[in-house]
Amino acid sequence: MIAPDGATLDALPIDTAGHMLTEVPLRTGLTPAVVIGPAVKIVIGWGSIVALLSAGLVVAVRRRRPQA
């Protein structure tokens, strides 16, 4: 079991089947994913809408052009 700071809290011997029951410290505060999560959701949502509209516009413009 590895702690958030990288220290080994508990381990099993190599090539030994078993289980561990270890208490780990809980994290307090917000993670970066929780902080920027809503912004990422908005950017991906609106970005995909803009990409689909742009692709539709490109297809529409190419269909209207006369073939050479």
**Gap between N and C termini:** 67 Å
Largest sheet: none
| Number of helical stretches of at least 4 residues | 1
Average pLDDT, all residues: 89
The gross shape turns out to be: elongated
Structural class: mainly alpha
Beta fraction: under 5%
Total strands: 0
Question: Runs with pLDDT <50, length 5+?
Answer: none
As a percent range, the share of helical residues equals: 40-55%
* String of helices and strands: H
Please describe what this structure looks like.
The chain has 68 residues and is mainly alpha-helical. Helix content is 49%, strand content 0%. It has 1 helix and no strands. The chain has one helix at 32-64. The radius of gyration is 26 Å and the shape is elongated. The relative contact order is 0.08.
